[in-house]
Design a protein that fits this description.
5% strand; 120 residues; Arc Repressor Mutant, subunit A; mainly alpha; 2 domains; two-stranded antiparallel sheet
Length: 120
């Protein structure tokens, strides 16, 4: 099973965070439960609509090269932004332009993930 079979990215659900298909449960949420020492059985008992394959897909996504590359790229971009702020080089945004700015970042990230995974 590939994580792509169980994980979705939907801009209308949780701001395009990776989620378990058919739910509003994010991969990040499941990974945080595991970090807090919840075991798989506890997660499945509390969220009985999840399956063991869903938890494994979250772990597989976390460990995938595409996900790690996207996280690394995001960290670099955040650091660039911090450096620009520290130097006083920043752009002011209103509500509309800020929303478009974040939508552009999501589109670029999605395109990069699609390019890395060989899908269109």
């Amino acid at each position: 099973m590939a994580w792509r079979d169980r994980i979705a990215f939907n801009p209308k659900v949780l701001y395009d965070k990776p989620i378990i298909k058919g739910t509003r449960i994010s991969v990040e949420f499941v990974l945080n439960l595991l970090r807090r020492r919840w075991n798989r059985e506890q997660i499945l008992a509390e969220y009985d609509h999840l399956k063991p394959e869903d938890i494994q897909a979250c772990l597989d996504l976390r460990d995938s090269k595409e996900y790690q590359a996207a996280i690394d790229r995001l960290r670099r971009e955040i650091q660039i932004g911090i450096d620009e702020l520290d130097r006083g080089e920043y752009e002011e945004f209103d509500d509309d332009s800020l929303k478009e700015f974040f939508e552009q970042i999501k589109r670029e990230g999605r395109r990069e993930l699609d390019d890395q995974s060989g899908t269109s």
